[in-house]
């Protein structure tokens, strides 16, 4: 049987073996390999390996980064209570959420194996926490044999290995074997489960893969396991051919074009054009003839690509426009706000290109693509051409349309729309039950009231649900901005979820604004405003949103609760390589907590987006797993799916999901009445992708153009240039006499600083618990992470000089951390907080005090910047952070001094070896929708 999808699975080399293990990460049975799945792969599966059952999702977020989320249940341990009538009794087995990551540092090349580092249970309760390093190599003429060896700490524990063989005669089958190094008796409550009887040892298995589907059955020492999954190539442009896509406008018979005078005197000519545009799903159509230029402003409710939508509209305009016309201007709009303007100066060249007679480059010389200005906003029917256009707005039943199984819908030329369709919602992981659901009939109504003025309403009728069974009241100490969600679900079966008015405006070029008022969502009503600025540099945008809100009552109509608040959030959006977008939101959230929310998402060829967010505010959420010493911070992952990639015709409809705790109050935001950045993001991306025309003429020869089918950015092998950097750095190492001098200086500093150790520690002990000490502790704990993060941003986003300095800083931090950790193991000094004495032996060498790793990393990270930019004040920032560790009694004063000297020496050495203009440097290049990495070396 021939598999239509198999080409997505085998991409050459070791990636042909990128099959998921039982935990979802690419590997064998329980052990990982150094391979990662093909860029853009998304896998969903379920595995059972007694006593663990796991529902897992894995995404190759970047070509070298694999992220896995697992929802693990443990047989033999009740979640909360064995009594089904007690609180938590219906939860069933114990369950835990786990996030794992794998970073492939080196791809396989020639003799060199692939090499990767991984961390399990990065966030969460840490039941499955571990770290590992693994190398993998393929063998044979056809590279159908892969072998891996690695070492893990915690889980896996010690040396592990794996092998996979794919017979050439049976390409869909593979045999796997591994040495499982997990120490199962050390797992969470292993004595109460079958994990307590499991041992390290060999396992064997067999795999079968067909297209997107895969299954693995394996045998361990005394039991079997099963893993079944589906892998979807998000990097593919589409999954289903557009066999039902309506063709562009092609008149059956050539019709004579009117003169300018006939067009102006007879609105029927414009009405005929608008009638055809309407049949091609164009809305908010505005037409104006200015001199010898025809101006069109419109949007399309179905076509997803900006260039293709403008192309079809331009083709229709050219067919109906006056014969003496010299140019056509088409402004594409969203909610009547202009987002892109295309000017066509030579209509003969336009016709030639649409008919396939000239190449793209010759056509581009006569096209101007620009940001619109307020003058491009055409008023409704200024020339009276809409009067004679019929607008059929009757209700109709559609099945399997825009991803809905069935819907009752009505939509007119002005985008006034009514839709009634079923809605399904899921809620996971409440103590009273692991899965909650809600099935409802949802009605949506949108009405244009004036220029940019829209009414939006939504109602829901609950049909079947069990969310209201959640009876346990929230014990959150924050204002209950979200944790009372079960109370809202217990309200009326028929609810008014949204009823609001939005006024959209464009006050100036690249400025957009919105004013809103009404019922925002099920839980809040209010008034608010947003303003968005789009600079000419298409990589970034900023917006500010302010909302005065009042909590609605539980019944779902016009009642209110007493809670009121005002939220204010400023946002910076920045486009990164690999079509990633980073967003930082800072300000005041729903529970009156203040802080920052970071979001990162990646968009794949199919238009599917995968991302995550993390919020850090001053709201102290101590609801489990949060504690007073370690409060919970809001975080989650999300998936956005444009349905066009999965339907036989184009559509702008989409679906989405997010996985995060649904009964939290910290870091929460109100549902936006109409986010401006969401309104312009897709159109702006299309506008700035290569020439911005996309699939303009829908010609066969266009399909391989980068503007139509953007190429995947290849992952370049940085090893040769990195090797030169390392060689340069080794050549700049201090000579033996200088090294001895440095060691002597460090020893002398240690002796001098040790004199003050006890006095400084006594002061810290006497003032423990003060706000100043707590603040210093938090500052010191966060400083290395902040500094390395800043270095990473400099390396990714800065200019050439700053990029090189940022990369040196990252190397310095890593090198200093390694030297510091080695020093801890050799010296083994106890920490002050251990209360064992000034030079006592630490209980664990890995947790010893000398030198301070935080001080080493902080000074190593700032030194390249301080030297490159002549900014010695940066050392004071690192010093304050180091003293924070001393104030918290995590280190002696002498530990921080030695750590600082170690970091300074490491940073100075690497800066001298790699600073710009000396040896080698890296540059990150971007523009025109393309990004690249260049390593340069001078001698």
Automatic annotation (TrEMBL):
Record lineage: Bacteria, Pseudomonadati, Pseudomonadota, Betaproteobacteria, Burkholderiales
UniProt keyword DNA-binding present: no
Domain Phosphatidic acid phosphatase type 2/haloperoxidase: 807-911
UniProt keyword annotations, A-Z: Signal
Protein name: Phosphatase PAP2 family protein
Signal peptide, first to last residue: 1-18
Gene3D superfamilies, per database record: Phosphatidic acid phosphatase type 2/haloperoxidase (1.20.144.10)
Pfam families: PAP2, YjbH
Matches recorded under SUPFAM superfamilies: Acid phosphatase/Vanadium-dependent haloperoxidase
């Amino acid at each position: 049987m021939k598999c239509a999808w198999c080409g997505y699975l085998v991409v050459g080399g070791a990636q042909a073996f990128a099959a998921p293990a039982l935990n979802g990460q690419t590997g064998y049975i329980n052990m990982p390999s150094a391979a990662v799945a093909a860029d853009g792969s998304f896998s969903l599966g379920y595995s059972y390996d007694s006593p663990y059952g796991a529902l897992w999702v894995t995404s190759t977020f970047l070509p070298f980064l694999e992220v896995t989320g697992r929802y693990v249940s443990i047989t033999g341990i009740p979640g909360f209570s064995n009594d089904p009538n007690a609180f938590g009794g219906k939860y069933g087995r114990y369950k835990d959420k786990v996030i794992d990551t794998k970073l492939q540092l080196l791809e396989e090349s020639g003799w060199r194996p692939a090499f990767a580092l991984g961390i399990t249970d990065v966030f969460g309760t840490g039941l499955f926490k571990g770290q590992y390093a693994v190398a993998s190599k393929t063998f044979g003429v056809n590279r159908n044999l892969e072998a891996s060896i690695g070492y893990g700490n915690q889980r896996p524990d010690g040396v592990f290995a794996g092998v996979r063989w794919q017979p050439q005669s049976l390409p869909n089958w593979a045999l796997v074997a591994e040495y499982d190094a997990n120490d199962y008796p050390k797992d969470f409550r292993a004595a109460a489960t079958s994990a307590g009887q499991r041992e390290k040892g060999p396992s064997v298995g067999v795999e079968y893969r067909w297209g997107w589907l895969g299954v693995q059955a394996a045998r361990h020492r005394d039991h079997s396991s099963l893993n079944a999954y589906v892998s979807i190539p998000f990097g593919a442009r589409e999954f289903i051919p557009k066999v039902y896509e309506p063709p562009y406008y092609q008149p059956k018979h050539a019709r004579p074009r009117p003169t300018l005078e006939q067009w102006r005197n007879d609105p029927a000519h414009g009405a005929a054009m608008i009638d055809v545009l309407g049949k091609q799903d164009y809305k908010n159509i505005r037409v104006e003839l200015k001199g010898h230029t025809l101006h069109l402003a419109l949007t399309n409710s179905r076509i997803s690509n900006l260039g293709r939508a403008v192309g079809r509209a331009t083709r229709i305009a050219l067919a109906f426009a006056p014969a003496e016309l010299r140019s056509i201007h088409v402004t594409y709009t969203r909610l009547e706000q202009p987002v892109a303007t295309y000017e066509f100066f030579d209509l003969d060249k336009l016709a030639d290109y649409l008919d396939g007679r000239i190449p793209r480059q010759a056509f581009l010389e006569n096209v101007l693509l620009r940001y619109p200005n307020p003058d491009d906003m055409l008023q409704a029917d200024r020339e009276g051409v809409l009067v004679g256009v019929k607008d059929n707005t009757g209700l109709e039943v559609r099945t399997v349309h825009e991803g809905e199984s069935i819907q009752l819908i009505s939509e007119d030329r002005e985008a006034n729309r009514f839709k009634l369709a079923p809605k399904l919602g899921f809620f996971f992981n409440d103590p009273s039950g692991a899965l909650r659901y809600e099935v409802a009939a949802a009605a949506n109504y949108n009405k244009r009231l004036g220029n940019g003025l829209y009414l939006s309403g939504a109602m829901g009728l609950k049909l079947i649900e069990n969310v209201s069974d959640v009876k346990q009241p929230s014990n959150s100490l924050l204002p209950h901005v979200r944790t009372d969600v079960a109370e809202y679900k217990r309200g009326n079966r028929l609810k008014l979820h949204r009823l609001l008015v939005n006024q959209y405006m464009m006050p100036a070029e690249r400025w957009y604004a919105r004013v809103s008022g009404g019922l925002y969502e099920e839980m809040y009503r209010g008034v608010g405003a947003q303003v968005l600025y789009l600079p000419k540099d298409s990589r970034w945008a900023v917006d500010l949103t302010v909302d005065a809100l009042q909590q609605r009552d539980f019944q779902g109509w016009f009642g209110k609760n007493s809670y009121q608040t005002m939220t204010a959030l400023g946002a910076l959006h920045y486009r990164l390589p690999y079509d990633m977008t980073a967003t930082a939101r800072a300000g005041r959230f729903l529970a009156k907590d203040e802080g920052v929310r970071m979001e990162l998402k990646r968009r794949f060829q199919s238009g599917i987006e995968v991302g995550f967010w993390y919020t850090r505010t001053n709201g102290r959420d101590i609801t489990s797993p949060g504690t007073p010493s370690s409060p919970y911070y809001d975080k989650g992952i999300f998936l956005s799916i444009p349905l066009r990639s999965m339907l036989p015709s184009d559509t702008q409809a989409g679906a989405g999901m997010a996985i995060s705790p649904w009964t939290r109050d910290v870091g929460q935001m109100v549902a936006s009445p109409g986010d401006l950045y969401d309104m312009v993001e897709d159109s702006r991306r299309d506008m700035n992708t290569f020439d911005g025309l996309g699939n303009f003429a829908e010609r066969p020869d266009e399909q391989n153009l980068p503007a139509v089918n953007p190429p995947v950015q290849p992952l370049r092998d940085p090893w040769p240039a990195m090797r030169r950097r390392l060689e340069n750095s080794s050549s700049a190492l201090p000579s033996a006499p200088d090294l001895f001098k440095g060691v002597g200086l460090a020893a002398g500093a240690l002796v001098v600083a040790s004199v003050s150790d006890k006095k400084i520690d006594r002061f810290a002990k006497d003032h423990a618990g003060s706000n100043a000490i707590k603040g210093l502790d938090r500052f010191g704990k966060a400083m290395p992470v902040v500094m390395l993060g800043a270095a990473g941003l400099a390396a990714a986003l800065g200019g050439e000089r700053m990029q090189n300095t940022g990369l040196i800083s990252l190397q310095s931090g890593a090198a200093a951390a390694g030297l510091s950790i080695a020093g801890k193991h050799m010296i083994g000094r106890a920490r002050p907080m251990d209360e064992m004495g000034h030079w006592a032996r630490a209980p664990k060498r890995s947790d010893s005090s000398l030198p301070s790793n935080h001080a080493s990393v902080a000074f190593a990270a700032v030194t390249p910047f301080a030297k490159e930019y002549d900014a010695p004040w940066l050392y004071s920032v690192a010093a304050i952070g180091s003293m924070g560790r001393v104030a918290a009694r995590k280190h002696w004063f002498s530990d921080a001094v030695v750590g600082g000297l170690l970091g300074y020496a490491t940073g100075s050495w690497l800066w001298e070896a790699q600073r710009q203009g000396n040896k080698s440097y890296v540059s990150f290049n971007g523009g025109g929708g393309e990004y690249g990495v260049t390593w340069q070396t001078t001698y």
